[in-house]
Each structure stands twice: as C-alpha cells, then as structure tokens.
Amino acid sequence: MPGFRPTPLAVVVLLAGGTASAVTIRVPDDAPSLHDAVRRAAPGDRIEMAEGTYSPSRTGEIFPIELSGRGLAISGAGAGVTVLDAESASHHFVVSDGDSSTLSDFSLKGARSDGAGGALVIRGASPTLERLHFADNGGRTGGDALWAEGSEVTLRNCLFVGNGPDGPTLRFAGGTCRLEHVTLTDNGGGAIEVRDGAALGMRACIVDRPGRGGGPAIGLLLHATSGVPPPELARNLFGGCSEGALRVEGPGAGAIRGAIAEARRNEGLREGDPLFLDARAGDFRVSERSPARLPSDGRGTSNPSPSSIEIGAFGGKTPLSLAGVADTPSPSGRRKGATEGPGLLESPRPNPSNPTTTIRFVVRREGVVDLGVYNILGQRVRTLHAGDLAAGEHSRVWDGRDDRGEDLPPGIYFVHVTQREGVDTHRIALVR
C-alpha cells in the first residue's frame, strides 16, 4: 500500500530504529473519504472520522470497503454523530483473510445486499466491533446487518434497530461469536442465527421484538451440531419473541437442552418487556421497572437496587437522538442534530469556567431531555441530565469533572441538549 504519512496532523509512533510504525489518519483532514483513508493506510494504522455523514453522494465513498489482513483501528466521533450511509450499496465493509481490525463509534445504515450480509460480511477474520449502531440494512439471504463465516467476531455495546426485511439480523456460520452489551430491537426478522458449529457467548444483551418486518419472530435460533459446546448465556433479556426466545434445531439439540434449561434458571435467558425509556427518540436505556435491571449477583428482582447492572447496548446508557446527524463531515468536534433549536440553551455562565459553570436551558414540551458535555473529539464526558422533564426553565451545574468524578483537563468543551423540539449546543472553555 502507498506509504501515506501525513506528519503535520498525524500521530507518528517511531520504533527504536526510527522507522514509522503507525500513524493516525484523520478524515476529512488528511483524507477526503474513509475509502481513501483505508486505501492509503498501512497495517496497524488508526483512522479517525469526524462527525458527519459519509456516503457515495456526499463524500465520494466507494462501498464496500475491503479490510484484508490490515489490522486497522477505524473510529468515528460517536454512534449517531458519525454515520456511514451506503445509499443502497452492497455492504459497508467486507472483512477477510485474518483481518483483526477494530471498528468503533459510528453508525452504519442503508446497505442492501442481494446475497448474505447487509452492512458487514466477515470471512475468516477476527474483527472487534464496539459502540456501533446498525439501522436500515438488509441482506436478501440472511444477516441483514452482519453475516460471519468461519470467523472470531466480538461485538460490544452495539445497537441494531430497524434492519430487515426477513432476518436474521445477525448470522454466524462456524467460528466463534461473542456478544456483550448488545441490543437488537424492531428488526425485520429473527434476531440471531448460529449454525455450522459456531460457538456462541452472549452476555448482558437485549433482544426485543424480532420479526417486525414479517420475518420469523425468533430471538435466537441455534442449529446445534454434535460435539459443539452449548452457548454461554449470562444475564440476557428477550422480549416480544412471539415465535420463541430461543429455538434449538439439529442433531446436537438434545445434548444442549440441559444447558439451556440451566441458563433459564440462572437469568441467562430471561424473558420480559425491556421497557426502554424512549425508543422513538433513540433512547434505549431501560427504566427503573425494567426486568433488564439485574442485581450484581445476576438474580432478578422486582425492586432493583442502585447497584443493579443494566444490560443492553452501551451498558444501558445509549445516547439520545441517534438519527440526528450532521449533513456533512466537520472536524470541529461539535455535535449537530437534524433540527436546530436555537434558544433552547443559554450560554453557560461563567464562561470560561474555573471550573464550575451553570447551564440554563428551556424545555418547550414535556418529555425526555438529554443534556451532556462533550470534548473536542465529540466524545461524551459527562451526562448532566437524561430522562423526563416538565416544560419550563431548568438549570444544571457542571463542575469540570467527568462521569467518574475525575477532573477533566483544561480546554474547549461543548454542552449539548437534545429534546423533542430540537437540539442546541454551546461552547465552554474550561480553565484551572
């Protein structure tokens, strides 16, 4: 591959011998499109996409993007903030030949495949997928969002919504698939299909209302093969699966039925309505009454304690308004929404803050409101409010700390409010 090394803006790591080992390629600063950045990258490089929508018509993307033995780290500014729109092209990515790339922090939508796999096709590879959002993708012969064959695939904190039409949304044939904190809801067909001896590990996941497009309303379909270990199921919730939360078929079915029964007893295969806070607004966190909220020992309770573990995508902290995205890429790091709402948010005072500032905002209509602080990379560092609020004037105080209570470094931050009436953003300079 071409030796692209943009030294002014890229981060260069040097080995003892002085040879460039890896760089960070920023899109669109260093490369105009993700496709171009991947074409220029050397194995082990990082690619960072700014907020915005990347598509054939807007940024000249050429899909599918092929990752073959590259081992790249490709990241966006956040799910719903950075979006890859395939505009009906077949697949966003094809990952093969032992590739071990990591894909994180963006949305994938609009892929249409006449064969297997919508957004992602994985063959003989071992990618890691983290904090991704899949929507409106379809594969005619299965794997509307993802199809993997003979691969070792890890998915963490991924959200699958509205993919279809027939399912399954995720299809694994052979290899190993590990799902942690994954949410699948309102997809067209069955949610997950595992076959050809694939080994499945599924932990802290939510499968909700499969079959919404007319396909099978099955949560998990296992084609069991003799000699294959039973799936590892821990703290998973299945809801709205009218044709069964789990169906086991094949010659090895009898051998794993006991393990399935044990998973049901130990909350690995729990059933019930997840009770999302506001799915229409893209808020897939669960309410206090949700059976998805389990105490730390894994046993269900009707009165969950504050220490309970929330399951599902993003650990139960999925951002609001995943559909609200900038029309074009911007390197500024500022989040943008589909609808701007000037006047929803006042300029924080004092600004600069040292380190405390008061943030006043207006709720024009009662409903779910999200108020967060972001760094210049578009990453959320602090949630100031997430939930219902009455109409009227409100305020919150930010003390210059992140969600873990640790002091953030001085610099530029953005406070961003999302509500039914729109979104608004203001800049904050933090000094110490």
Descriptive overview:
This protein has 432 residues and is mainly beta. Among the domains are: 66-276; 357-430, Immunoglobulin-like. Helix content is 6%, strand content 40%. It contains 3 helices and 36 strands. It has helices at residues 34-40, 56-59, 253-265; strands at 13-14, 20-22, 24-27, 46-49, 52-54, 65-68, 73-75, 82-85, 93-96, 102-109, 112-113, 120-123, 128-135, 138-139, 146-156, 159-161, 170-180, 183-185, 192-195, 199-203, 206-208, 220-223, 232-234, 237-239, 246-249, 270-271, 276-278, 283-286, 293-294, 309-310, 357-363, 367-374, 380-389, 392-398, 411-419, 422-430. The strands form 7 sheets. The chain has a 22-stranded parallel β-sheet that branches. Strands 33-32-35-36 form a 4-stranded antiparallel β-sheet, with no helix packed on it. Strand 1 (13-14) and strand 2 form a beta hairpin. The longest helix is centred in the middle third of the chain and has 13 residues, at 253-265. 49% of the residues are buried.
Summarize the structure.
By secondary structure, the protein is mostly beta strands.
The oligomeric state is single chain
Low-pLDDT stretches: 1-19, 296-307, 323-328, 330-341
**Biggest sheet architecture:** 22 strands, parallel
Q: CA-to-CA gap between the ends?
A: 45 Å
Specify the number of helices: 3
* Overall pLDDT score: 83
Radius of gyration: 22 Å
Strand coverage percent: 35-45%
Q: Helicity level, as a percent range?
A: under 10%
Provide the structure class. mainly beta
Shape from CA axes?
globular
Q: What is the count of β-strands?
A: 36
